[in-house]
Structure formats: structure tokens, C-alpha cells
Amino acid sequence: MIELWQSFVIGVNELMPWFDGNMAAIVIILIKAIALIMPLLLTVAYFTYAERKVIGYMQLRIGPNRVGPKGWLQPIADALKLMTKEIIFPSKANIYLFLLAPVLAIAPAIAVWAVIPFDEGIYVTNLDVSLLYVLAIGSIGVYGIILAGWASNSKYPLLGALRSASLLVSYEIVIGFALVTVVMIAGSVNLNTIVADQQGGIVNWYFIPLFPMMIIFFISALVETNRAPFDVVEGESEIVGGTHVEYSGMTFAVFFLAEYANMILMAVLAVIMFFGGWHSPFEGMGVLESTFAWVPGIIWLLAKSTFFMFLYLWVRATFPRFRYDQIMRLSWKVFLPITILWIFVVALMTQLHIGPWFA
Amino acid sequence: MSSEQIIFYILSFWFVASSLAMIFARNAAKAVLFLVLGFFSAAGIWILLEAEFLAITLILVYVGAVMVLFLFVIKMLNIDKSTLRAKFAGYLPLGLIVALIIIAEMTLVLGSSQFGLEIMPSPERHGADYSNITQLALQLYTTYVYPFELAAVLLLIAIIAAITLVQKDEIKRKKQSISEQVNVKARDRVRIVSITSPSKEDK
Q: Which domain holds residue B36?
């Protein structure tokens, strides 16, 4: 197997000399990308199923239970249905931008995952400025929604896009400030270092000194991913379906994929930033630590992220939609002052060396 | 050619092509999108130069925020293209003169006399443990801390000035107090009055 691989690498390098023998590295990156994207898309598919089931039970319904045993094949059926549906183009739409918009929505939503560390040493790439990369690429996703609204040449999508642009820009500032406090404690913008710094059990996780920032990050993540109770971009009772009105079939499905990939990303990011990433909560607790020592780090990360993903569904089933101006007020007049205040609190805690976090 | 050179030429080609397309685009929204593509190519070239912090800041600030607001404004404006094109010939000589002056200035400042290989040797490659952001922060917060703070204060003044300009006529604005709206009780809004219904004998 190894000999076959080596001969393949040598052969490829001879065929394509302009890669200076980097072909093996490129192939490995491609394999890593596939190993990341396939489970991600599968998670997205079954997250939609989980959403319908969980919200169904919360509303005393059963949820999808017809396709396959207990409805487990429902997401596959949905995907097939969306793929075979006709894509309708509005007659006065800008066709290039209309088709570019879903691509601009899904590409950043997947590209962000390149720097997410799943376990010690398990990542696609270890970028030194990985937190900034996540914020930068995450902020590009808004182009998909804005362009969808503009290119559709229709009133409701435009209203949805306007709402989305102003919301995302305001809440990006809040998320940025909330994450600055994490960077202040960890002393690094590398996600690997941030997680490694939270080693040593649940008391060392950042959600204790940064509890308000954790709450603000989670609420802002709801806004950034257009989730209820902040889903005014879609707002089906006010503006029909916002930016998605003119999209049908696979073009709509791509927006859907991007939204759910972003939700999962925000859940994983919350775990990495505030809940110790791949670290076990029982580290340094004697018997408990040795009992759970066999659990690999990636399982801890995924288990903690699953809890946050469940929170998304729980929040959606619980709260009524906010009014648009109330969301804006929450961002600029409530969250922003709190985050700026907490930066000073963290600076003070650093100077006084409080707790295990500011050693 | 090495793979790095190939990537550099691809990025440079896209940078130049998208910049030209940005200028020649008839549609303002398309121009903004070409500018975004240009920013991306510039960020790619900066990453090749091991300046990953600058590259990502360019995307975060300009692509992620400034250009989004540009698109936001462009969508709300109703631009009449005929008036834009009517004055094109009139402004052309002035535009050409300005362009020539800028090109001359740029060649003087950025030309080979300042940044040629004899004066500025190509930067050495750093190892994998080299942290661009740490080096930048050390310079920014020690040697250049006062210019840095001054720039920050300048931006703050600009923000406050802009807000003050918008908020000129305070009296005309209609405000709503959210806490008042949330705390309202049914008895504040609805008054239940008991009315004696007229009996049949009165008719």
C-alpha cells in the first residue's frame, strides 16, 4: 500500500514538474477535505431530521416517521426531492448573480472548517491566525444572502437582504468583542492553543470567567445564523420567506445547507472557545478521569457541540420572534457595552491573577 | 516555474483583471463584487508574502464589513444611469489628468528607485514557528504605540462626528421607549366601563 502510494507520488511529480514535488501534499489536503466535508454534509442532513423530531416532540407531535424505520431516511428523501425539482429563474433576475449567490453562501460555510481542531493534532490546517480566519471567512457568508436578495429582483427578497446585511454587520462586532476576551486569556488567536490552554478539567474552561461573554456569543450566534427567535431575514409571517422567496429546488437546498453548516460551526466554535474543545471535563478528578480516559477527544468535542446544537432547536421551539428594532437595540445598546466592559474586567483579572485561568 | 510563482501569477492576473472589471462595470453592484474579488486576490498575494495577519484583516474589515455596507447603500439608491453617462465626456479630461498625476506619484514613491531589488533585497523565508501576528503586535504596541493610539482616537472622533451630524434635529425624531412598551399592563391601555343597558320598559 505504502509502495503503491510512493510510486503514485513519484509518477505524479514527474508528470507535473511545476508543483516542485508538492503533489503529495496537495493530494493529502484533498483527502483531508473530503474526510471533513462528507461527515459535515451528513450531519447537516440528520440535523434537519433531528430538528423536525425535537421540535415535534416539544409541540406534542411525532414529527417525520414515514420514510424508513422511524423516519430515519427522511433527510435522504428530502435531498432527492430537492435535487429533482425544477429550478425557476425569475424573468427579470440577474441570472449570473442569482446563481452565484448560493455558491457564495455555501463556500465560506465549508471553508471555515479548514482550521477547526477536532482533537489534538486533528485538523485540516494549523493556521496561526485561525480565529481571525474563522471570523473573516464567516463574514463573507453574508454576501450570499445579500446577492440573493438583490439578484432576485423582487421586493421581499430585497427587504430580507437589507435586514440581513445590517443585522450581520452589527452582530459581527459583538461576536468579535466577545471573542477578544477569550484571546486575552489564551494569549493567542490560534484555535489549537486556545483549546490547549483550557486543559485540566471543567474548572479551567473559559466559560467560568467569561460567563456573560458565553451567553452573548451564543445569542449572537443565533442572529448570525438567522435562527429563531432572530430569523427576521426569512420572517415568513412578515416578508414571506425573505431572501429565499425566488429560489427553488437545489438552489434553495444550497442555502439551506449553508445555514445548517453555519449552525454546526457556531456550536463547535462555542465549545472550542468556552468549553474546553476536545478536553474531557473530568481531567484531574482522580477516579472519574481514569474511568473516562478511554474516550477520545473528538467524542468529547462532538458531544459538547451536540448539546449546543440541541439548544438551537430548544430556543426555536420556545421563543417568539423578536421585532427587528429590538434585535438592533439588543446589539448596540445592550451587548456591545457589556462586552466592552468585560474586556476591562478580564484585563483586571489578568493583572490580579485570579483563578486557574489567569495564572 | 515553481508552484509558488504559478499561484502568484494566477492571483496577480485576477487582481488586475478584477480591478479593471471593477472600473468598467456598468452596474454598481457588480463593480462592488469585482472589487471584492480584487481584495481576495490581494489577500492571497499577502499570504504568499507570509503576511497572513494583514491578509485576513483585509478580508475581515474590507470584504466582511465595508463592502457589505457599500452593497447595502447601493441597493437603496436609485441610480439613474443616463445622468451618469451624460457628464462622462465633460469629466474625462479632468479624470485623465488626475490619473496621470497619481501614476506619476506612485512610480516616484513605489518605483524601483525606492523598492528595487538592490535597495530592498527580497525578504528571507521564515520557519514554520514564525508568528507574523506576534511580530506585528510587538512593533505596534511598543515602538509605534503612540501613532497607533492617535489613529484610534482619530477614528473615534470621525464616528462621533458622523453621529452628531445625523442627529442634528433632535426635536423632530419620534422615539419609543422599549422598556415602557414591555412593562405595559392591560389596565394601562384598556378601561373597562360598566354601562347599564337600557331596559325594555324605557322604549
A: 1-80
Nearest to A169 among B53, B68, B75 (CB): B68
In a domain, B48, yes or no: yes
- Helices A74-84 and A249-274, packing angle to 10 deg: 140
In this structure, is residue B16 part of a structural domain? Answer: yes
The number of domains in chain B is 1
User: Is residue B32 a part of any domain in this protein?
Assistant: yes
Residues of chain B with Cβ-Cβ distance to A97 below 8 Å are 29-30, 33
DSSP type of residue B63: I
User: Does the beta-carbon distance from B63 to A136 stay under 8 Å?
Assistant: yes
Q: How many helices (H) does chain A have, and how many strands (E)?
A: 14, 0
Cβ of B135 under 8 Å from any chain A Cβ?
no
Residue range B19-56, pLDDT digits in tens: 999 888 877 778 888 998 899 899 999 888 888 888 88
Give a yes or no: residue B12 inside a domain.
Answer: yes
DSSP A230: S
CATH number for the domain including B4?
1.20.120.1200
Tell me, what's the ipTM? 0.78
Q: Give the mean pLDDT of A202-209.
A: 82
Band of pLDDT at residue B101, cut at 50, 70 and 90: very high
Residue B154 has which C-alpha cell?
482619530
Residues of B in contact with A128 (CB under 8 A): 52, 131-133
Coil, strand or helix at A119? strand
B chain contacts of residue A22, beta-carbon cutoff 8 Å: 3
